[in-house]
Amino acid sequence: MASDAVLYEAKDQVATITINRPESHNALSAEVRDGLRSSFQRFEADDEVRVAVLTGAGGKAFCAGGDLKEMMANRSQNLGRDFVVMPGRNEVVEKPWIAAVSGHAVGGGVLYTMLADMAIASTTAKFKMPEAMISRGAPWSVALAQQLPSKVWFEMAVTGRTVDAERALQVGLVNQVVEPEELLDTALEVAGRIARSAPLTVHATKKSIRAAAEMGMSAAWDVADEYFDRVYSSEDAVEGPRAWVEKRDPVWKGR
User: Fold this and answer.
1) 59 neighbors 124 (Cβ within 8 angstroms)
2) What end-to-end distance do the CA atoms of the chain give, in Å?
3) Structural domain boundaries of the chain?
4) Which CATH superfamily is domain 6-196 in?
5) pLDDT-flagged residues of the chain (< 50)
6) What is the pLDDT of residue 108?
7) Distance between CA atoms of 114 and 109, rounded to whole angstroms?
8) What is the pLDDT of residue 190?
């Protein structure tokens, strides 16, 4: 289970996962990495929770990436693909989740912004990939090919240039920019809207987006049709229009 290095709270079908090491700028120490993995596993396994929000405590940093002191003590400089939990890469997380980014998002902080289904940034957010400055690497950043123009990706990866919140919004790394005091409330409000949406449609949409990123358009269309066959034949597909006509909130069963 998560230690106090990563906090987990669930309310109204939304889980809030908080990296809780502000004194180290929420760097990815072993304790934080273990806490994130167990928190994402808990989120995926909890049938009462539909959406998660990932954020960092303290407001000064979302996540400062790898703990450099810990890395220097590690004889092997190649940390491997399982060094940190990566939903969709080395951990199955089929439910949607949102990154709520305030302050510095460095290395791993960019990673979690990129992996999230949506990202909300505060005006203080600053995104930076410093790997080329210290002879490290970011193989995980290949997923940026589906999110950023290649020239922007290359610039971030090899120059270490800091990208502010407005630039991140312009290039598509985040969905929205808000004032720092509004960040978590905004992320939770968006998460709540997703939680109230038809769960089968949300699930099929997430899978379709991933399929479109991994295959050609024609193949992705065929796969998306298969995903949504379950939606159209479900009880929820009857409940949704009925609730709309009756002017009431739908009661989703997820079947």
Assistant:
1) yes
2) 30
3) 6-196, 199-245
4) 2-enoyl-CoA Hydratase; Chain A, domain 1 (3.90.226.10)
5) 1-2
6) 92
7) 9
8) 98
Q: Which candidate, 155, 97, 105, 98, places its Cα nearest to that of 128?
A: 105
What pLDDT, on a 0 to 100 scale, did the predictor assign at position 2? 47
DSSP 47: T
C-alpha 77: how far from its chain's center? 26
pLDDT value of position 89:
87
Which amino acid is located at 115 in the chain? L
Query: What kind of fold does domain 199-245 have according to CATH?
Result: Lyase 2-enoyl-coa Hydratase; Chain  A, domain 2 (1.10.12)
pLDDT of residue 1: 46
| Residues in CB range of 110: below 8 A, 6 or more apart | 65, 127, 128, 129, 138, 141, 156
The alpha helices in the chain, defined as continuous H runs, are 30-45, 68-73, 108-115, 150-159, 165-171, 183-196, 199-214, 217-232, 235-245
* Segments in 29-67 forming alpha helices (H): 30-45
**Which residues 6+ apart lie within 8 Å of 181 measured at CB?**
none
Residues 6+ apart with CB under 8 A from 173: 113, 114, 119, 127, 147, 148, 163
pLDDT of residue 245: 93
Amino acid at site 119: A
Q: How far apart are CA 137 and CA 68, in angstroms?
A: 14
pLDDT at 77: 58
Neighbouring residues of 202: CB distance < 8 A, sequence distance ≥ 6: 50, 96, 194
Alpha helices in 23-133 (DSSP H): 30-45, 68-73, 108-115
Q: What is the pLDDT, as a whole number, of residue 147?
A: 87
